[in-house]
Amino acid sequence: MTDTPVSADAENAEDDVFEQKSVRLAKRERLLAEREDAAGGAYPVSLPITTTITALRAEYGDLEAGAETGVTAGVAGRVVFSRNTGKLCFASLQAGDGNRIQAMVSLASVGDESLAAWKDLVDLGDHVFVSGEVISSRRGELSIMVSEWSIASKAVLPLPNLYTELSEESRVRSRFLDLIVRDQARETVIARAKVNASLRSTFSSHDFIEVETPMLQVQHGGASARPFITHSNAFDTDLYLRIAPELFLKRAVVGGIERVYEINRNFRNEGADSTHSPEFAMLEAYQAYSDYNGIADLTQELVQNAAIAVAGSTTVTWADGTEYDLGGEWDRISMYDSLSAASGRVITPEATVDELIAFAGEVDVEVPDHATHGKLVEELWEHFVKPGLTRPTFVMDFPLDTSPLVREHRTIAGVVEKWDLYVRGFELATGYSELVDPVIQRERFVEQAKLAARGDLEAMRIDEEFLRALEHGMPPTGGMGMGIDRLLMAITGLGIRETILFPLVK
To answer: Which helix (H) or strand (E) holds 249?
Structure first.
């Protein structure tokens, strides 16, 4: 085995960073030696800040070039640009939200010693405090004519080049740097907060109650997925990171919390790609005395309100400039009817596994492991229909054998009252008329257990505690689940690793 060769440019870059770090650490030592309260460290604990950079821009952003305000302000920010001349130094200070103000450090205002210290000690990336008059420079740049300054925190490592875009890999591995240098990164964090606030507001308007349910579970369930397994020393038992909160939220409905939702993390020990992450944020909601039609109406309202909260309209603009319309009433199509129309062959719930396997072979669709009627129908649907979906679309009425927690269709044999919502070509949400009959639910769990025994790692297990809850009576209920990360993808046009603040990476 040989070591991977390192380019000369990479070696030079590492040497440069090491040298800069050494110089900056020496400056930190000087700061430490000069502090009277050195026991508290090299940096002050608090600063006489009177306002923020953002507030100053809002109040004085339209000052004419050369204008003076007579107002003294004390602000702090990160140095992202610096230019030192003989008797006047300029620096751009950046707030956490990306707003900037210019600091002007002049010999006339601070004196020889302070100006020399600024030139010697302040580097790009440092957090500094400045106090002075708010003015507009001769070039019209909102500025503070500094009369007093101090270093609030030293950047021992240099910032990346602010004028060269970070690679995607660098962005997700060092999100803290991404947030400093890239507006889009900060805007995505803000958009996510607006989405969550909007979801909660919409639920509140419909009298839903937000709850929290266990993430460590003695038995995984609520979805077909492979779980992460851990061990509790206190209980001396294996536990599962939850793949879904569904079975606990349904317990809440049984208990009388008839409109309930949760926004929290799920974990699935599966692949990672542009639309999947092993750890992701999930919304699930359940409404008693509703069904999959009613919960579809609610989901459309949730998504459209979230889009308005972020973009000001149901027409959103993605990161690449593309506009996407989330407004209006969304299409609702039948899985079987749309598959038959797109494939040119009538496919019904009565189609046998052998017939579907043969058809899959004819059209080069991979046959899934542990193939069932439902898995084959869904694979064929994804091959023929999914690529043609452009507008937001509810795909209705799924095969029974892939949906063990869903009520059978009230008029169509062999299917269940389930929909998947497709937006931007990916599945954004799913909704059910929930199965509330404990007798049928037990039968479904038994069938799942048989699949598990044959090696299907995604099959559900029999959950006796959940069945006991159902046996106490659960009202007819509509339920839905939606990925928060994917909702951000639909609104912003970004990939999933961009919508998650700190995604899991190798």
So the answer is: helix 246-254
